[in-house]
Amino acid sequence: MRRHAVEILLQRRTDIIRYTKHTACSDEVYMQTFLQDCGLRIVPDNLRYIDWSARQSSPKSLKLEDFDSIVASGKLLARKFDSTESASLIKMILEHISH
Q1: Alpha-helical regions (H) of 1-99
Q2: Would you say residue 53 lies in a domain?
Q3: Do 79 and 48 touch, CB atoms closer than 8 A?
Q4: Residue 65 gets which letter from DSSP?
Q5: Does this model's pTM top 0.70?
């Protein structure tokens, strides 16, 4: 988030508190709502790598063979990891980001 956007949110914190006090899931919408209201452009990308190819009610658990796709995606976050199935992938990602 750019500095200007943070400054807007800080300046309008009283409005934000009033607006979100009785709103369900307010933590998921208040930033976009207030920043768009101030005329800032919201980029429609949550920067998460998620593989829905299995077409299930939940995304695929990522495994080691997904590493190249995750890195190539340019996303900052990824979902979903399983502590057992994804252990090798997690280790490889940690090695990758530490270099």
Answers
A1: 3-11, 13-20, 30-37, 67-73, 87-97
A2: yes
A3: yes
A4: G
A5: no
Pair 22, 60 in one domain: no
Asked whether residue 42 is assigned to any structural domain, the reply reads no
**Nearest residue to 4 via CA among 33, 30, 29, 41:** 41
The parent domain of residue 11 ranges over 3-37
Examine residue 29 and state whether it is found in any structural domain, yes or no: yes
Tens of pLDDT along 11-39? Answer: 988 988 888 888 887 777 778 888 888 88
| Statement: residue 88 has pLDDT above 80 | yes
Lookup: tokens for 71? 């890195």
Cβ of 10: how many Cβ atoms within 10 Å?
9
Q: Could you tell me if 32 and 73 lie in one domain?
A: no
Cα first-last separation, the chain: 25
Whether residues 29 and 57 fall in one domain: no
